[in-house]
Design goal:
The complex is a heterodimer of chains A (186) and B (100). With 186 residues, chain A is mainly α. Chain A is built from nine helices and no strands. In chain A, helix 1 runs antiparallel to helix 2, helix 1 packs across helix 3 and helix 7 packs across helix 8. The longest helix of chain A has 23 residues. Chain B is mainly alpha-helical and 100 residues long. Chain B has three helices and no strands. Classes of the chains: A mainly alpha (186), B mainly alpha (100). Chains A and B meet through helix 1, helix 2, helix 5, helix 6 and helix 8 of A and helix 2 and helix 3 of B.
């Protein structure tokens, strides 16, 4: 592959790489760092890319490997990294236009890494189970069950707050029914 | 999708049918109330319906979240990086990479 072809292919892949990275890590700045690292690595190891195979999948693989190895390293460094992360997530930002997205991202962050990755690849990026399996380095059946578990978990997490979608009255009712019993007769 | 299709029974009730002057509309309204009543009475299936709706919403939101970024313009820093990659030989890239 000529470097001009590589460059063009990279430019075309960047939007999807960024979207994948943001979905995975939940932070645009960090996502862009990941994309940059991915491009540097990919350019450096372009000779290992099999011409004619799926370049987008290859770049996705580099990005997820970079992300997960960094995550494993951080986990080793700080034993309770997940606890700290979860505590930070518990502080919700003020309501804004992307409240729904924030809520979804928070829910994604509560999933196991492998389930989060699977549901992003298949449901968000729209890849086939086969492509997702190749990128994650596991069997197609494994991806399918991860996606199912992730979906169930997400609806469990997001179901708790879905009362909001049925208007303030329903939301209030939901809150009341969860608080002390004596107010229920109102 | 046809606009004639009545809304799902779980939608909030339409404005009071007393406001309507056409008896036909009032009848549909009553029918909807009936459906809603049925739904409320059938406890377990209501939960499943909620779950299916949630699943569909979550799928849509996941796509939206992804597309929101995927459709954004590529920041200039990436184009700059690529033009650097293009112009430099690979050995000078090693210095840029944080790892190793």
């Amino acid at each position: 592959m000529s470097s001009e072809t590589v460059k063009q292919a990279f430019i075309e892949a960047i939007p999807n790489l960024r979207a994948f990275a943001v979905s995975l890590c939940g932070n645009l700045e960090r996502a862009d760092d990941l994309v940059q690292e991915t491009m540097l690595k990919a350019f450096k190891h372009i000779d290992t890319f099999q011409e004619g195979s799926n370049l987008k999948a290859w770049l996705f693989t580099i990005l997820r490997n970079t992300y997960f190895s960094e995550r494993r390293r951080l986990k080793r460094e700080v034993e309770d990294a997940d606890g700290v992360h979860a505590a930070r997530l518990a502080v919700h930002p003020q309501q804004h236009g992307h409240m729904d997205m924030r809520e979804l991202q928070d829910a994604l962050n509560l999933l196991q890494d492998d389930q989060r990755e699977a549901v992003i690849l298949v449901c968000a990026a729209g890849l086939s189970y086969e492509e997702a399996a190749a990128i994650s380095g596991c069997a197609v059946g494994t991806i399918k069950s991860r996606v199912n578990r992730a979906r169930a978990k997400l609806s469990e997490i997001m179901g708790i707050t879905s009362a909001d979608e049925f208007g303030p009255d329903a939301a209030t009712e939901a809150i009341l029914s969860h608080s002390v019993g004596q107010v229920r007769h109102i | 999708m046809t606009s004639r299709k009545p809304p799902p029974a779980t939608d909030p009730l339409p404005p009071n049918s007393g406001d309507s002057e056409t008896p036909g509309v009032a009848m549909v309204d009553q029918e909807q109330r009936g459906n809603m009543q049925n739904q409320l009475e059938s406890g377990p299936s209501e939960g499943e319906g909620l779950d299916a709706r949630l699943q569909a919403q979550i799928g849509q939101k996941l796509k939206l979240m992804f597309d929101e970024v995927a459709k954004a313009p590529v920041p200039a820093k990436f184009l700059n990086l690529l033009s650097k990659l293009d112009g430099q030989n690979l050995s000078s890239l090693d210095g840029q990479e944080k790892s190793k």
